[in-house]
Design brief:
The complex is a heterotrimer of chains A (about 270), B (about 350) and C (about 300). Chain A has 14 helices and no strands. By secondary structure, chain A is mainly alpha-helical. Chain B is of the alpha/beta class. In chain B, the strands form 3 sheets. Chain B has a 6-stranded mixed beta sheet, sandwiched between helices. In chain B, helix 3 crosses helix 4. The longest helix of chain B is centred in the middle third of the chain and has 16 residues. Chain B is elongated and about 80 Å long. Helix content of chain C is about 60%, strand content about 5%. Chain C contains 12 helices and 2 strands. In chain C, strands 1-2 form a two-stranded antiparallel sheet. In chain C, helix 4 packs antiparallel against helix 5, helix 4 runs parallel beside helix 6 and helix 6 runs antiparallel to helix 7. Chain C is flat, with a radius of gyration of 25 Å. Chains in contact: A-B, A-C, B-C. At the B-C interface, loops of B face loops of C.
Chain lengths: ~270, ~350, ~300
């Protein structure tokens, strides 16, 4: 029954987003950009496959970020704003199941979108591969429709799942969507620079206390840049399996912790 | 067994950083609602009705005290399985149709497959939305949304139905339909608890009422119990000597001067009119009319709130009474002593 | 509904984030082939300025920050290949986007010229970068001075250094001391006295990083002097006893040294090799590698 109720909430979130125009705007824009990268690729002599992969993966990540942030911050706060939460929570639905369902629902939305965009990118690359001369193929770092692009997409999906948890937390925490948006973007930016924070002491001469505090922040904030293997995949460089495994575990454990935090906050909230 | 039991429920709301003293929305509430029948939670706007219902549903957490729903603590998932709730001015999901919403909620109650569809469909039929079930909720009128709200409150065949202001904002037909629905739910043996500031609705529907003012329960009982001390007789007479008016001041509830020497006396329910009329005749006045006044909940309501004390009895319109500034607590079943000086309109 | 106490919730969250950080730490140990090319979405060149529309100076700032991070990150990384490989392209891109980025030319040149493991050891790139700066702003004596310094310190070309000191001295606003410095450099070649003169002037620079570099170089000079002195003491021991010492303790016991010698700024010991009788600075020292400058 627990799993069923969570699945119902998640499916409902997915359905809501599938009917949301924002999603289509972002996805349409992303597909357009991926398609435009073919044009761009023709402008740059030789490196067209690399550029299409670079741009394609960047667009998948960028569009995913937009979806995650904009849909994520409204995940709970929108229900509170329009007060639909009041009739929902009167149902035999424990609050933690509500949060977990909301989380999984948005993750499902994001995963479906990332998968669709990745599929579009692969189809396009397959087409280029089919059109290319053998001599051109020999110059590529990696085959055009490289299955390893799926690994890069998987890492992007895990990164977005982590960001979804962060957005969900702020959505459950704050009653203002704008504030949740600002906090989520703030955490994302800090997380992107987390590696630099961890190495702060190496880069900048600063008193050791300051370096330690900054490094500690670097370890604690979600390390969004840790999921970036786009360049390695595009250049056909090896990425060790243990690296991928540890990174995935990191993302899953961290996201779980943030979802728990969202539950802790949400189960203490009151609704007037 | 009492489907709803409330023990010393108190709820404080912080008023913001600059006002450290919290606002007490519900103050030491204790009552039980017996099984079956309709219980009306009445009170002016801001009396704490919605807060009380939200405390029962665990949407709010009490500052002190506790509540039980169907024998379990408020918020218990098992209890909610047999509970239906219609929030005040409900809103649902714009992107869903009524059918989808009902099926979603029915799923949360654990119904599956054909059963889930059938229950959703039956609930929509029952509130008269059978034809519009495939339209998205964003196209629904206020009255239709209210019906959807009723449908989702009964989709699980609840033992207890809680309705928060179920008739607010509805047109007369909608109000009648909701009234009929409540009576039908009662006839099916369910317990209905609803809040309202509209007394005529309560009068027609409720077996018991509780009256809230400023977060306190100022009266509670059957309609009969509460109206026992209201009603009485209106006696109008002319050529009344002013000495007589002064003399009977203690016996009448209210004296209104209509014109020179022409007065209307409101005799309380306990005062028989015959001796008063005899005294009137003895004083040389001319009897114009004698009219019995029926027991009314409105009377009892105003009485319980204590608003008729110093002429600040903002007469409650059809949509209800304004919030009295100083409702007197603890007046349950107790007759207020007539205070002739301030209560009469003598010249 | 019975709620879990708050402290349990907070503990679970803290433990979760803690174990996530531990996973991240474990992952950092897994080497990933450097593909830092993501820093360079744009190849250096005239087209680069157009890509950023009117935000090219902002982009230059971003790339400059990336440069510092790349440099700082690689300096502390254990990688053996590809260290600092992006330094030159990043600096080139930064200075292309903002041709008046004074800081990028001057610090960048010092980064590029540093010997491994502290830098790529590319004085040629350093000089090319500064010459690029001079081509934009031909009157900046600091660039000429820095070219002279790189020639003097990293390539050991004293004559070229003297030529650039003279060029710098001819530029408007150049300080008085540049001309005697040029003369000394030309006369003394690459000796330590000339170097000290140069470094003492640099130690009063308006740029903190230049001051730090000068201080470090002065410490290196002191270390070189100390090695010479210690070699002389070893020879003195040999003259006196007829044998070479087996370790510093022999020299100390002979009363020629108070204690085994230590380099004062880094605290690293001077090492004595009994087989070759050579005195060196401990490989732990941050001053390594020492420059190759002859004694006066």
């Amino acid at each position: 029954m627990t799993a069923r109720r969570i699945a119902l909430v998640a499916w409902h979130v997915f359905k809501e987003h599938v009917r949301d125009r924002v999603l289509y705007a972002i996805a349409g824009f992303a597909l357009l950009l991926v398609a435009a990268s073919i044009l761009l690729g023709q402008l740059t002599a030789g490196e067209d496959v690399k550029i299409i992969k670079d741009l394609g993966l960047a667009v998948i990540e960028g569009a995913g970020l937009l979806m995650t942030i904009f849909l994520g911050v409204g995940l709970v706060s929108r229900e509170i704003d329009r007060r639909s939460i009041i009739s929902l929570l009167a149902k035999p639905l424990p609050r933690w199941q509500f949060i977990v369902g909301k989380y999984l629902g948005l993750v499902l939305t994001i995963v479906v979108n990332v998968a669709a965009m990745t599929a579009a990118l692969l189809v396009m690359l397959k087409y280029l591969d089919w059109r290319a001369l053998p001599v051109e193929r020999a110059a590529w770092d990696a085959v055009a429709a490289d299955p390893r692009l799926l690994l890069a997409a998987l890492m992007i999906a895990i990164e977005l799942a982590l960001l979804t948890a962060v957005a969900l937390f702020f959505s459950a925490f704050s009653s203002s969507a704008l504030l949740s948006l600002a906090f989520t973007i703030g955490i994302y930016v800090t997380g992107v620079f987390s590696l630099d924070l961890r190495r702060f002491g190496d880069i900048v001469e600063a008193p050791s206390l300051v370096s330690h505090v900054v490094a500690a922040i670097g370890w604690i904030v979600p390390a969004f840049s840790a999921f970036d293997i786009k360049a390695q995949v595009v250049h056909g460089l090896p990425v060790p399996a243990s690296y991928l495994l540890l990174t995935s575990c990191y993302g899953v454990v961290y996201a779980a912790a943030v979802v728990v935090a969202a539950i802790v906050v949400f189960s203490r909230r009151e609704f007037t | 067994m009492f489907p709803v039991r409330v023990f010393g429920l108190t709820k404080d709301f912080p008023q913001g950083f600059w006002r450290p003293r919290p606002h007490r929305a519900v103050d030491g509430l204790s009552f039980d609602i017996p099984e079956g029948g309709v219980f009306g939670l009445l009170g002016p706007n801001g009396a704490g009705k919605s807060t009380t219902l939200k405390l029962l549903l665990d949407l709010l957490r009490p500052t002190t005290g506790h509540a039980e729903i169907l024998g379990r603590p408020a918020g218990d998932v098992e209890a909610r399985q047999r509970l239906g709730f219609l929030p005040e001015n409900p809103t649902f999901y714009d992107h869903l149709t009524a059918e989808e919403l009902l099926e979603y909620f029915a799923g949360l109650f654990g119904y599956r497959g054909e059963d889930r569809r059938a229950r959703a469909s039956a609930a929509l039929d029952r509130v008269g939305l059978g034809a519009d079930r495939r339209r998205p909720l964003r196209q629904y009128s206020k009255g239709m949304v209210q019906r959807v709200g009723l449908a989702q409150a009964i989709v699980n065949d609840p033992a207890l139905v809680i309705l928060d202001e179920p008739m607010s904002g509805l047109d007369p037909i909608g109000r009648r339909d909701v009234r009929e629905m409540i009576l039908a739910l009662r006839d099916e043996g369910r317990t209905v608890l609803f809040s309202s500031h509209i007394l005529s609705d309560a009068e027609q529907l409720c077996s018991r009422v509780g009256i809230l003012a400023k977060g306190r329960l100022v009266a509670e009982g059957t309609i009969g119990e509460l109206t026992r001390h209201t009603g009485g007789t209106d006696v109008t007479a002319s050529n009344v000597p002013s000495a007589f008016v002064d003399r009977v001041a203690a016996r009448v509830r209210k004296t209104s001067r209509i014109a020179d020497g022409r007065y209307r006396f409101e005799l309380p329910a306990g005062e028989r009119p015959e001796p008063f009329i005899a005294d009137l005749a003895a004083a040389g006045a001319v009897l114009v009319s004698v009219a019995p006044v029926g027991a009314s909940l409105e009377e009892a309501f105003m009485h319980a709130l204590g608003t008729d004390r110093d002429g600040r009895a903002d007469s409650p319109g059809p949509e209800g009474a304004g919030l009295p500034d100083d409702p007197r607590a603890g007046l349950q079943g107790e007759r207020q002593d007539p205070d002739g000086a301030s209560r009469s309109d003598r010249p | 509904m019975r709620r879990v106490p708050l402290w349990i919730g907070i503990s679970v969250v803290a433990a979760g984030i803690g174990s996530a950080a531990a996973l991240l730490h474990a992952r950092e140990a897994v080497p990933l082939p450097a593909a830092d090319a993501r820093f360079l979405f744009v190849q250096p060149g005239p087209a680069a300025r157009r890509v950023f529309l009117s935000f090219d100076t902002i982009a230059a700032d971003v790339y400059w920050i990336r440069t510092i991070q790349h440099y700082g990150g690689d300096r502390h990384s254990l990688r053996t290949t590809g260290r600092f490989e992006l330094l030159q392209p990043l600096l080139d891109l930064t200075t292309t986007l903002d041709p008046h980025f004074n800081l990028a030319y001057r610090f960048g040149a010092i980064f590029l010229a540093m010997d491994p493991p502290n830098g790529p050891g590319r004085p040629d790139q350093a000089i090319a970068l500064l010459e690029k700066g001079l081509s934009v702003t031909p009157t900046r004596w600091q660039y000429a001075h820095d070219i002279a310094y790189v020639n003097y310190w990293y390539t050991g070309n004293a004559l070229e250094a003297a030529r650039w000191f003279e060029k710098a001295a001819d530029m408007p606003g150049a300080p008085e001391w540049l001309r005697p410095l040029a003369a000394t450099t030309r006369a003394a070649g690459g000796d330590r006295t000339g170097a000290r003169l140069l470094l003492h002037e640099m130690a009063t620079s308006d740029q903190a990083y230049i001051r730090q570099t000068a201080a470090r170089s002065l410490a290196q000079l002191d270390a070189l002097d100390a090695i010479d002195r210690l070699t002389a003491i070893v020879e003195q021991y040999h003259t006196r006893t007829g044998t070479y010492p087996r370790a510093w303790s022999d020299v100390v016991n002979a009363g020629l040294l108070a204690a085994p010698p230590v380099e004062p700024t880094s605290g690293a010991p001077f090492l004595y090799d009994a087989a070759t009788h050579a005195v060196t600075l401990s490989p732990d020292s941050k001053l390594l590698p020492l420059p190759h400058l002859g004694r006066r």
